[in-house]
Amino acid sequence: MLRKKSFVAAVLSLMLFLTTVRPVSANVAVSSPSVILIESSTGEVIYELDATERRSPASITKIMTLLLTFEAIDSGKISLTDQVVTSEHASSMGGSQVYLAEGEAQTLDTMIKCIAVSSGNDASVAVAEHIAGSEEAFVALMNEKAAELGMADTHFEDCCGLSDSDNHYTSAKDVAIMSRELTVKYPDIFRYTTIWMEDITHAVSYTHLTLPTKRLV
Predict the structure, then answer these.
(1) Looking at the whole model, is its pTM more than 0.90?
(2) What is the pLDDT of residue 28?
(3) Does 203 score more than 50 pLDDT?
(4) Which of 14, 38, 70, 168 could form a Cys-Cys staple with 163, CB 3.0–4.6 A?
(5) 3-class DSSP state for residue 111?
(6) Among residues 74, 156, 150, 79, which one has the least CA distance to residue 111?
(7) DSSP conformational letter for 76
(8) CATH classification at residue 188
(9) 44, exposed or middle or buried, with CB in 10 Å at 0-12, 13-18, 19+?
(10) Cα 87 to Cα 74: distance, rounded to the nearest angstrom
(11) Does 212 fall in a domain?
């Protein structure tokens, strides 16, 4: 059972996108070191504080992974019914995961749920490999997209945020840019980020053994 705990889901659900901009006169007190508030339809910045300061994105990285996934769906390169097979590399991911086994196949639809709801590092890598052939090739696409969107303070080293490299960074402004791109262009993302609870079934077949289906909590 997947419970809604993903930082990705939290970011997308907590970002305040205003449809009408009105003058605001108030003292703003925030505890976060970097903050930005934008208007969704125009991208106009309403409020910001150290918004271009580079910081480690951790699982916020998956916003770009999801953006490229929805772009690939929209272009017809992949579909939600695709069977995405988990590689040895993908199954070896630590941190937040849904415990996909090597050789396990799930639909892309299920994999997106695993990313958006449970912040699955293993699912992120499996989807990246499905789209680009390897995580490295997918990360190159991530950086190309970041440059295309004008994300001047972002560089990715992996597709899920596990990297502790100083060369894996983003900023509040760039998070807002890619989040707006994802949510405005592909509102179907909210079908996944608003899931409260979901079941997935693991079934992995080997030459002499078939594991029973299981419920992941």
Answers:
(1) no
(2) 67
(3) yes
(4) 168
(5) helix
(6) 79
(7) T
(8) 3.40.710.10
(9) exposed
(10) 25
(11) no
Residue 121 is encoded by which pair of tokens? Answer: 């590092």
The 3-state DSSP class for residue 92 equals coil
**68-117: pLDDT as tens digits:** 999 999 999 999 999 999 999 999 999 999 999 999 999 999 999 999 99
Question: 23 lies in a domain?
Answer: yes
Cα→Cα distances 190→67, 132, 165, 215, Å: 12, 24, 31, 24
Confidence check: pLDDT of 147 > 80:
yes
**Tokens representing residue 4 in the block:** 């809604």
Give the active site residues: 59, 62, 119
Angular region, 50: left φ>0, alpha ψ -120 to 50, beta rest: left
β-strand partners of 155: 169
Number of domains in the chain: 1
pLDDT beyond 70 at 139: yes
Residues 52-89 as b or e (16 or more Cβ within 10 Å = b): eebbebbbbbbbbbbbbbbbbbeeeebeeebebebbee
Contacts of 43 (CB under 8 A, 6+ apart): 177, 180
Residue 55 resides in a domain: yes
* Cα(163)–Cα(48) distance, integer angstroms: 27
Please identify which residue in the block is written with the tokens 């079941």: 199
Terminal-to-terminal C-alpha distance of the chain = 4
Q: Which residue bears the tokens 């293993």?
A: 122
**Per-residue pLDDT, 41:** 87
37-44 long-range contacts (CB < 8 A, ≥24 apart) are 38/176, 38/180, 40/180, 40/183, 40/184, 41/184, 43/177, 43/180
Q: Which domain holds residue 135?
A: 2-200
